[in-house]
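User: These chains co-purify. Model them together.
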Amino acid sequence: MKRILVLVLALVLAVLPAFGGALDTIKQRGILIVGVKGDFPPFGFVDERGQLAGFDIDLAREIARILLGSPDKVQLVTVTSANRIPMLQTAQIDVVIATMTITSARKQVIDFSVPYFCSGHLILVRRDNTTISRFSDLNGKRVATVQGSTGDRVVATLAPQAQRITFGQNSEALLALKDGRAEAFVQDDVLLLAFAKQDPSLKVVGWPPQMPGPYGIGVRKGETDLLGAINVALARIRSRGVYGKLTAKWFGEFAKELLPPAKCPPELRL
Amino acid sequence: MSIDPAFALRVLPPLVRGAALTVEVSIWAIGLATGVGICGAAARGSRIRPVRWLASAYVELFRNTPLLVQIFFIFFGLPRVGVRLSAFQSGLLALVLYTGAYNTEVFRAGLEAVPRGLREAAMALGLSRWQQFRFVELPLAARIALPALGNNFVALVKNSSLVSTIGMVELTFVARDLEAWTFRSFEVYGMATLVYLGLVLALSGALRRVEARALRFLRPPEAR
Amino acid sequence: MRWEVAFQSLPYLVRGLEGTVRLGLLVMALGTILGIVVGLLRLSRGLPYTAATAFVELFRDTPLLMQIFFVFFGLPALGIRLSAFVAASMAMTSFAAANAAEIVRGAIQSIPRGQMEAARSLGLSYVQAMRYVVFPQAIRRMIPPMVGLFTTLIKDTSLAAIVNVFELTTAARQVVERTLASFEVWLVVAGMYFLVCYPLSVLARRLERRLVSESP
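Assistant: Joint model of the three components:
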């Protein structure tokens, strides 16, 4: 019996991460563990070969290049809107680069880098829909959203009488829309534009993008060294023109429809 | 982050409202699954071979695949072939088919537990088929089947937590929604667990009383 | 119908199935060990009995999904940090142990009292009697329901998908995410689970007939 208890204790202790500054741990380990989306084109998605790809992934690699010397010193972990913060808090990942909007609520539990993107919210509907063109039209209708996303809160704020149906990942909300279970799907503008481009039976309405918010890189509260290093890395990525290259690569076609970063408030008050 | 008991109490009302839907879908599912179980057991004992085979196939398919996959298939898969059910209907259907498969086995085991000799004796005594069933087979079968059936009902209530994945706003869904925005996971999931515990214990207690009464009711009348 | 899509993803899904089986085996192994301990405690009295009973009631009367959420999302509030895999494993192990404990207890209690009495009258202590006489006989009766428990666990690993542990259901969701071929993929995945669980169910039934019917 005692032997079993000792084994269990050892097991528990073995899974507790080492204490100490995150930046030091990362440098010692030599790998940056990044939480990214797997269901959010063009920021983070799974391509035909089963590999994660997207803007956030490339950004993560550029940051690893600056922090650790090589873009390959990155371990990508898929997260969802609902679990990205717990994954960060439990030290399963070092940083979150997963289309995470900086909101006042989230700032209370984690720390954010300087913004790296600006995203408003739009509405995706079926092409034959004629009743929805603005957010206020959503009242009384069934709207698909994703658990833990700002889109979910935006619907609750701009259309309180809308009937929200919340799902775990973007594809499920999309299928709900296509199958007629919901009349609309509200999410970040870039994502919906990407979906509409892939599927001619859908169209994007609700212009201009509502309640814009900046995407930020998330770190655990109090990790000031790591945060500082990331902010410096982001500044360098911009100044070297790498940021411009990534934007052109991943959003080229939508660039004119998106909000310029200048139009974004420092955080989304949700 | 520390634990806040006051917050835990504040989330109780929305959780209980979610639990109302849990109870609603559970009651429907329990009723329908019992019916499915009885039909399934009858089909399993049928003299027509294809019917027997179909019933077996049904039971094996639904007991050897995860309920979550069944839910996803019904809700996300069927619309692709034109069958579109709401979240409530999909969740209900999955729970009924899954639990119905287990119930079929329970009823079948109950009926098979009646010794052949007893049935023949009843026939020899001149009892009609109905009287045989009501006074001989049913009481014996029930004694074996009812506890197992009760277990299946409790399992159904616990399994109802899975329909949160298709957007039904029941207890688990409300808990996840609350947690996604308040980040107070310990309080939210702790309270949700307690509510489930309450539901299950209440159901178990009610089942025990129903079993006792049913067994008394089914006892053959005293010889006069 | 886009069956080619589903079959193209088969290698990826098989990797998911490996994750499922690995998780299932780990949880079954740990759960059985813990379950035997708890099951034996359920046969005692006083504090060990109460603690064991509380454990069994808690993990059998609450949904497994809630248990996983609580361990993965809730424990960090107490400063306990666990990966999704460890959290799901811990929750599932406790769940498995609670069920295994009841199987163990039921099997031991089904051994006729006379066995224990005879052993004690021969001078063996309670522990010796349990270890050399009662328990070995009980093991035969435990095996069929344990195989059934393992089948249930394989199915329940699908819940770990909700916290993104990599196993078959997670892999399936990712494939559906990419291809939107929900009908084909979920049908294929159901078939894959069936191919693993059905033989186990048949095995359990056969063991039941052989091991239990022949017991003294």
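Chain B has a mean pLDDT of 87.
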